[in-house]
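Give me the fold.
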Amino acid sequence: MKIGVDVGGSHIGIGLVNESGNIIQKAEKFLEDKTDIKEIIEEFIAENVMQMSLVNNVERIGIAIPGTVSENRIIKAVNLGIENYDLGSRLKEILHMEVKLKNDAKCAALAEQKYGELAPYQNSIFLCIGTGVGGAVIFNGKLLEPKGVPGFEFSHTIIQKNGTLCNCGKRGCFETYASIKRFKEKISKEYNLNSIDGEVIRDFIIKNENDPRLKYMIRNYVEDLSIGISNIINIFEPEAICIGGSFAEYEKILYNPLKQTLLNGNLLFNRRDDIIIKHAKLKNDAGIIGATLIE
């Protein structure tokens, strides 16, 4: 048995995963208050790993992190406000188990490649669109990684010169225009909804689908998202793209407009008759399952 941990920008999930990639026990926590975030992460992981290990032979722990990871250290996780945090060593001291860390989008890509929608393809892209935007590249059947840091930070490529300030300190990052969190925040603010709950925003959009302002905001979001994705397609020319994260909650609203904008807009260098865009089969469990596949 292995334990996978998915530390997100607003949520932690921990799962006991068997050899077939199935989660047989799970614990979750929402990160509403990020004060003392390091202590919260450590305590929640340690407590649940010890509980899951009581009656199971756990080989090791893998942790998916939303940011830059190097040598089992969190170098930077901007959506958690964490820098230079040796989480791997801390947990190894507490739990006396092998602990491996990797970027969360890379973990989710590994899971979708082995057990999910990317299994049939040798060359593909995985995008996790939620609190932020994470990405990974599968090339010739393997996760493409540079030395040192995980790389492929699609989220922090610039799509708007001198644009909106990003949490990373730069302006105009893809993430500031394409994350579902920002999408929800803009609609909530424009219509005084006093909530960015996914279900609240989705229901509001469905009930007001003919509202001109709302249609304009959705079109703008799709255009920004398409610019970022088209840049990735132009570089890697993937066979398929798999999208995970809370983007899936808006499939009926965003999927077709996104695909049509990519196909019919003047964005792709090599025009296509079709683009294969899949929704993550493993959904929010992809990070947990993928964390157990870290080598």
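The radius of gyration is 19 Å.
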